[in-house]
Amino acid sequence: MSLVLKDINFKYKQQENLLFDGLSLSCKMGECTALLGESGCGKSTVMKLISGLEKPSKGEISFCDELWYSKTVSMKPKQRSLSVVFHDVAFFPHLSLLENILILKNKRKDSEEFIKTWSEKFKIADILNKKTLDVSGGQKMRAALLRGMISKSKVLVCDEPFAHLDKDLRDLICAEMTQFIKKEKKCFVWITHDQERASKFADQLVFINSER
């Protein structure tokens, strides 16, 4: 069972040439697929196509034989078994980190116990009750990862989730995340510039080269 993008064509309205011409990739359940490439190559666009925030002009997107997008099908983002963690974390500033995590609707039944365990692994257990304005970007990103992890969705897509962390913490969280993905049989799509770390922790490396 896999997340599959097949023969995708795409360009933004302001572009003359295609950004992608026949892009295809497959991301297996229980595995981490790292999307690598230079800035502006279209890695984040792949995330938007998977999540339904952008639509290809040609091709199909499917997950476990469920068609998410084709000529005749266009499933809305909220209908897809998908959780997305953007590079720019969108949290409500008047709520605590914990409240921002638990605000998710489609979450696992053991969410509170899960957060307790994983917030300790992610080194944010002592700041969960702080408002988002009072914590660092790296701490907010780790909280956003937790929110993505407690979702019942089977696909987790993250844009540079480890970029704000120091080396030791980055390695620790990468290792914990990959073990979690395998155990929960989720499909993890990880957008990154960090080829060294991706080579160490990801099951599959995909290098994105746009056509422009």
Explain this structure to me?
30% of the residues lie in helices and 25% in strands. By secondary structure, the chain is an alpha/beta fold. The protein has a domain at 91-148. The strands form two sheets. A five-stranded parallel beta sheet has the order 6-7-8-3-9, sandwiched between helices. Strands 2-1-4-5 form a four-stranded antiparallel beta sheet, with no helix packed on it. Strand 7, helix 5 and strand 8 form a beta-alpha-beta unit. The mean pLDDT is 93.
Chart the SSEs and their pairings.
Elements: E1 2-10, E2 20-28, E3 31-36, H1 43-51, E4 58-63, E5 66-69, E6 82-85, H2 97-102, H3 111-121, H4 137-149, E7 155-159, H5 167-184, E8 187-191, H6 195-201, E9 204-207
Parallel strand pairs: 3-8, 3-9, 6-7, 7-8
Antiparallel strand pairs: 1-2, 1-4, 4-5
Q: Please report the total strand number as a whole number.
A: 9
Bin the helical content: 25-40%
Name the average pLDDT.
93
Number of helices: 6
Radius of gyration: 17 Å
Terminal CA distance reads 32 Å
Give the biggest beta sheet. 5 strands, parallel
Strand order of the largest sheet: 6-7-8-3-9
Structural class, judged by helices and strands?
A: alpha/beta
| Outline | globular
Indicate the proportion of strand residues: 15-25%
Order of helices and strands: EEEHEEEHHHEHEHE
Unreliable stretches, pLDDT < 50, 5 or more residues? none
